[in-house]
Amino acid sequence: MTAGHYTDLLWDAVLRGDEYSAVDVVVDALRDGLEPEAVLLEVIGAVQQRVGLEWAANRLSVAQEHAATAINERVISTLSLTSGRHGGERGRVTVACVDGEWHALPARLLAEVLRLRGFTVDYLGAQVPAAHLVTHLHRTGPDAVALSSSIATRLPTAHATITACQAAGVPVIVGGRAFGTDGRYARLLGADAWAPDARTAAETLADGLPDPAHPHAQPMDDLPHLSDQEYTLVTRSAPRLVATVLDRLPERVPAMAGYDDDQRRHTAEDVRHIVDFLSVALYTGDAELFEHFLGWTAEVLEARSVPVAVLRPVLDLLGDELRDFTRASELLRRATTFPALTGGAGTPVPAGAVTEGADSTTLHRTGRPA
């Protein structure tokens, strides 16, 4: 049987929320001769990727997505126990997620692949604070750190973590969607290596990472544009920006006058999310990061039958508040010219449209490309 056959079986089990059938699929795949690494990446990994795509298309709820991820986590545990112990002759690697990063499954898949390939692995899981990670490095002395992040808003934290690990003398390989499909943010933030997938990461680590090139670098050594302080000032003023936009938004979206407390709370979360992505675009100096987020969000809104034009008033109001910030103003100006966001004049905006789709809230739950 091919990996695709078992992928379909696991997808059916996950969709039904049937943990026992999901475990049976993995056990059967191993019994029928499929390599454990292929089960991890071509079956479990493929199903998890489909979960994200189906959620984005509004064919899975948030609850279904979380349930599917939990089942896949337990299936990985079964596979790990079934495939047995493997030696640590290839070195020791610490695998962790950036602080604030809850999407741990990609890191877990990498950890299991590394174990299968003969590494000793310390898997630390989701959202590991940099200080605790460095303490662990001093205690265990690994050959490398593998750092994972899926959400671009965690890039400033990732940068600080990369720098802290390198200062401890441990090289860092990074991966995950946060670092870009081409690894551009890995290079920008001074990581020692980047890998687009678990197999490439394992091969890179097997070859060995060089000692950190700049073990005492500071953020502005990598990102000199931070000297204008726009990232710092926008980040510090984020609560005020959100409050001001919320106060003025009913002028642009009259239906907000009828919002209840929950709708206003969700709208505040939505606006904060936009400010966070604007901030990280200022940090990286990359306008495409903000534009990609808005374009992806527009697709998700459209899948939920929410008029994309609801984004424009928020961007305009942020532009008013940040008119004295050169880079932020340019980012917002470019964003408002996006064809996907211009919409049509007079496009009706239903009550709650900024935060609600056909059957779920949207923007504050769309901030992580799946």
Automatic annotation (TrEMBL):
Ligase listed as a keyword: no
UniProt keyword rRNA processing present: no
PANTHER family: METHIONINE SYNTHASE
Protein name in UniProt: Cobalamin-dependent protein
Coiled coil region boundaries: none
Keywords annotated in UniProt: Cobalt, Metal-binding
Disordered as annotated region, ranges: 343-370
InterPro entries attached to this UniProt entry: Cbl-bd_cap, Cobalamin-bd, Cobalamin-bd_sf, Met_Synthase/Corrinoid, Meth_synthase_dom
Low complexity compositional bias, start-end: 343-355
Pfam families: B12-binding, B12-binding_2
Annotated B12-binding domain residues: 90-216
